[in-house]
Automatic annotation (TrEMBL):
Keywords: Membrane, Transmembrane, Transmembrane helix. It comes from Strigomonas culicis. Residues 72-337 form the Amine oxidase domain. This is UDP-galactopyranose mutase. The chain crosses the membrane at residues 12-38. Signal peptide: none annotated. GO terms for molecular function: oxidoreductase activity. It holds the Pfam family Amino_oxidase. InterPro entries: Amino_oxidase, FAD/NAD-bd_sf. The keyword Membrane applies.
Length: 414
């Protein structure tokens, strides 16, 4: 068996140590996912691994691991950066950042959002982040122009302020509901679910004609099975005197609401915001692609397993993935943690049971890329609601109205 002289062995050791030190010292210059792919943590972690944890040398360890590079995950990553935290990473099983807010560009040059997002907020921090991603000159600002299509009539949004556009019978039904509501409930009782909430707010007429059919179509579950805690400021409150005045004058009243004006990136769709935001985070921290899909979360040992088997250790975990998916990943992780102490409050079987119990809906988004120009009646339209059950879709968006570059020259995208 060949032997190695002690002086030669120590110079090999020195050389390897020097190589590792230089590698880490210059690691920020390497492409973003390079270090991660080779399982290389920041220098401080690596020294710890060399000195005290030889068995775990290939398992990365972070103070914070964020699962999901959608708006929530990227927002959290930005906050950590602002607070000068360095031991964190973001993992996402998709090839692009943005989550449900991402956009795609097709082979014909049309850009599509998943559903046509609009950006509005009254939070200064949120607005600042939007401009960190895309500077002020990169945005279009639009006046919302939105309609509800009912019984052949186009009723401007907000629906309750513009019921004069409805056919007579429906208009009377909606107005009657509003009047009865005002007489009966100067202060409507607290609603226990979404169905009760909109019936208390808008009366039985508007509930029957618009709110119930539209929301049943949109959420795919009965509104009576939904909470109303999320509604907040998104739906206009009733001003009966104003509604009657609009009816008497035949005037549209469209200015209400937090999204009466909204903005949209001139290029790249909504997803352009989140791609830009991801690129402004420190390099090598956001890891995208199927190999970064989290398949197991072991909350006992605080270890994540990625598709393909690689593992990471975390101190704090921030998940922005669908709750049922997190519960299933926890179930897998808890099974692998059998025998480890302490036992968490949930076991694998309970996690699976809870995941199965959760309701969720999904939707198909269809993009129609057409040659030509937008018909004059839709020239400035943004989005249109279709509550009636004989129409199979619930909403349409004239997406090329949001930004010229959402469609190639001479094209219309909807
Ligand atoms: C049709 C439609 C229209 C909408 N319109 C608007 C709008 O106009 N304005 C607005 O503000 N919002 C709108 N939204 C809502 C908005 O899209 C979401 O609120 C937002 O994307 C949620 O961000 P998130 O980061 O919490 O989650 P998500 O966007 O769902 O991101 C979660 C991320 O986790 C990743 N992931 C999932 N599982 C795993 C795993 N196991 N391992 C690793 N990664 C994983 C996913 O790939 C994804 O990137 C709309 C949504 C839809 C569907």
């Amino acid at each position: 068996m060949a032997s190695v002289d002690p002086p030669i062995a120590s110079s090999y050791f020195f050389f390897i140590l020097l190589w590792l030190t230089l590698f880490y010292a210059f690691s920020p210059l390497l492409p973003p996912s390079f270090l991660f792919l080779f399982g290389l943590p920041p220098l401080s972690h690596h020294i710890c691994a060399l000195l005290s944890m030889p068995v775990q040398a290939t398992m990365l360890s972070f103070d914070v691991v964020i699962i999901g590079a959608g708006p929530t995950g990227l927002g959290a990553a930005l906050r950590l950066t602002e607070r000068n935290r360095t031991s964190w990473c973001v993992l996402d099983g998709s090839d692009v950042a943005g989550g449900l807010s991402r956009s795609v560009k097709d082979d014909h040059g049309f850009t599509w959002d998943i559903g046509g997002h609009v950006i509005f907020s009254h939070y200064q921090y949120y607005d600042d982040v939007m401009e960190l991603a895309i500077d002020a000159s990169g945005w279009n600002v639009h006046q919302r122009e939105s309609y509800v299509y009912v019984a052949g009539a186009w009723v401007p949004y907000p629906f309750q302020n513009n019921i004069h556009r409805l056919p007579t019978e429906l208009r009377e039904e909606c107005l009657g509901g509003l009047e009865r509501l005002t007489e009966a409930h100067a202060h409507p009782p607290a609603a226990l679910n979404f169905e009760q909430w909109f019936t208390n707010q808008f009366g039985e007429g508007i509930a029957r004609v618009f709110m119930r059919p539209y929301n049943t179509k949109l959420w795919t579950v009965p509104p009576s099975a939904m909470s109303c805690a999320w509604v907040g400021e998104r739906v206009a409150q009733i001003d009966l005197a104003q509604i009657k005045q609009n009816m008497a004058r035949g005037e549209d009243d469209v200015g209400w609401g937090p999204n009466a004006t909204f903005r949209f990136p001139k290029e790249g769709g909504t997803g352009g915001i989140y791609r830009a935001l991801a690129s402004r985070l420190p390099r090598g921290r956001v890891h995208l692609g199927p190999e970064h899909r989290v398949v197991a979360v072991d909350p006992v040992r605080k270890v994540l397993t990625l598709r393909g088997g690689r593992q990471l250790r975390y101190t704090a975990l921030l998940s922005s993935i669908p709750l049922d998916e997190l519960l299933r990943a926890l179930a897998v992780g808890l099974e692998s943690a059998t025998g480890a102490a302490p036992h968490p409050p949930l076991d694998a079987a309970t996690c699976r049971l809870l995941a199965d119990k959760l309701d969720f809906s999904s939707t198909h988004i269809v993009g129609l890329g057409m040659r030509g120009t937008v018909p004059s009646f839709l020239k400035t339209a943004c989005w249109l609601y279709f509550p009636e059950s004989h129409i199979c879709f619930y909403r349409a968006t004239v997406f090329s109205n949001y930004a010229e570059r959402n469609a190639p020259e001479g094209g219309v995208g909807a």
